Amino acid sequence: PRNPFGRHTYAVSIDDKGILRGIEQTLTMENIGRIVADKSTPGEVRSILGPPNRITHQRSPQREVWEYRMFNPIQVPYNLYVQYSNDNLVREVLFLRDPSQDIPGARN
To answer: For a tag on the chain, would you pick the N or C end, based on fewer CB atoms within 10 A?
Structure first.
């Protein structure tokens, strides 16, 4: 990962002889689509996307929230939020434009 300020995370594939076989950007729309609400677990999400940039907790409803900083397909900064309930299942996946990109005083 290129944390804490980067917007890329890479998975590296190495064979049993230690030879590099591939490098893949994991923060993609295709990979986000592999996360299933009410089914995916934190381990599965970490395997798909890599470690989050930040983990926070909200009180109501009680959720652990993993934040990933990334780009949308046209390279605009976005934030991905994956929310887990106490039973360690994904409950919501939110893909929102990064508010740091908003122009103060502009109407959006």
So the answer is: C
Q: Strand runs (DSSP E) across 1-105, as ranges?
A: 10-14, 20-25, 54-58, 63-71, 77-84, 90-97
**Long-range contact set of residues 70-73: C-beta below 8 Å, sequence gap at least 24:** 70/7, 70/8, 70/27, 71/7, 71/27, 72/29, 72/97, 73/29
- The tally of CA atoms less than 13 A away on the side-chain side of residue 67 is 16
What's the confidence (pLDDT) of residue 6? 82
77: Cβ–Cβ under 8 A, 6 or more apart, which residues? Answer: 7, 69, 70, 71, 97, 98, 100, 101
107: its two tokens: 């109407």
pTM attached to this predicted model: 0.85
